[in-house]
Amino acid sequence: MTTIGLPRETARGEARVALVPLEVAALRKLGHDVIFEPGAGTSSGFSDEDYAARGATSAPRAEVFDAQVVVCVRAPGGAGPATDGELAELRPGLVLVGMSNPLGNPTTAKQVAERGVTSFALELVPRITRAQAMDVLSSQAVIAGYKSVLVAAERSDKIFPMLSTAAGTLRPTKVLVVGVGVAGLSAIATARRLGAVVQAYDVRPEAREQVESVGGKFVELSLDTSGASGGGGYAAAMGEDFYRRQQELLTSTVASNDIVITTAQVPGRRAPVIVTAAMVSAMRPGSIVIDVAAAQGGNCELTRPDESVEVDGVTIYGPTNLPATVPAHASQLYAKNVGNFLGLVLGPHGLVLDLDDPIVTSSLVSQGGTVVHPAVQEALGVPTAGPQQPAFVTTGS
After folding, report:
1. Active site residues
2. Are residues 238 and 94 in the same domain?
3. In the chain, fewer beta carbons within 10 Å around the N or the C end?
């Protein structure tokens, strides 16, 4: 039997919770105990009574962090460099599961490792068929893409659908989605459902079919996109000359749309700047840019994270955590991902690691007091050795 701790999220603006009551019940059926900090699910609409009814036990925060496994949404590093208080909560031997952005905050990953914590970064779960049920990036990106369109619609000076009235006909709003990953496809589908005319652009040639499948029109530019597909549905990082030419060719398309939603990201790197200040100036006053990639630096040159900026009558807004604005459903999806992941790495007597499993090796950041993830080691400038353990590792009693 493993005890799983569920703390209340403390990152600014984070309203999600790592386990919803329904998932607690599923873990209990597997023989695990769940203890939760009072108020852990309140921001997501789940009361302490809801958790207790599903078999979880309320406990002070310090006791929650004494559990064998702690699950969270934002692990230390997931919302910026860890504070001394966050690190002090971590004890040797703890298994920590959550989103920690170790490629963006490798120093925090090292600090967590030095505390003797075995940590998993769920955002590093590979995009392979067997891992789809654990893919937190995809589940949260669906929410982000949907909400980005609603935010744009609320701020726009136009309605989305075509409307014919006795007073005349209103033409539909034109929406451009840049970046056709999970968030981008969700944005296209949502904008189409609201009646907008939607165009979409992605450097990956295979994105055309995906765009058309949800009702969008693919924007094709005269660019050499060989090598643009980075695997796992992501785009690869391209050179500066490529991005400069891309900006030039996209200018007229951006200017012809009322709303631009950008979602282009490259794992472990700053988001590429696709929409320049000059491109924004060419847009119609009243137009909107929603930069879903703001947390990674933004696709728009003028983006300021979590701020709304107006330039030449165009509003640029860069939300960094859209899923947290829909916390009930975002938590429901995230919790299912967490539950499926725990089902992979937990056995009857504790942590069981199959170090031949790509899901485990891709998400395992620290173990045995050191950082073991090769990409994080590289970011820290240390030799890449990986986990020095047998194929199966079992901890716990």
Report:
1. 127, 132, 135, 138, 234
2. no
3. C
